[in-house]
Amino acid sequence: MRVSIIMGSISDREIADKIVAKLMEFGIEYEAKVISAHRALKELQEYVKNAEDESQVFISIAGKAAHLGGVIAALTTRPVIGVPVKSSTLDGLDALLSTVQMPSGVPVATVAINGGENAAILAAEILAISDDNLKEKLRQFRSDMSEKIANTEYIYEG
What we know:
- This protein has 6 helices and 5 strands.
- The chain is an alpha/beta fold.
- It has one domain: 3-Layer(aba) Sandwich (Rossmann fold).
- β3 (57-63), α3 and β4 form a beta-alpha-beta unit.
C-alpha cells in the first residue's frame, strides 16, 4: 500500500514533510513529487496513470487556484485528498474553495488549510479499511492522543 503525494510547487514542501512524517509513523509507504497541474499537465497525466497501480490514495498540496486535486481526481478512480495551502493571497481561502468545490462526480476530500497531518491520517484511515494492522495503529494513535489531552493540566488564575 502506498500514498502518492503531489505538490503543485516546491514551496509546498513544508506541508509535504508533515504528511511524510505522519505516514512514516504509521509505516505507510509513500512517494512525493512536485508536478504542477498548470505548468506540467502532461507530466501529471503520465505520473497519475503510472502511479495508479501502486498507489491507493493520492494527496495533492496546492495553493492559490489549487486545481491540482481536481485534475488528479479526473485522472483516477483512487481517493484524492486535497490540502489547500495558505499563500499571501487571501490567506488560503482561494485554495480552500478551489479544492473543495469540485464538480459532481469528481470528488476531492479536502482538509483544512495547511492541514497536511490530517491528510496523512485520513489516508491512513482509508487504507485501514483493508489492513487490520494499520487499523490497530490508528486506534493506538487515538488512544495516545486522548491520554495526552486527559493528562494536560491547565490552571487558570484570575
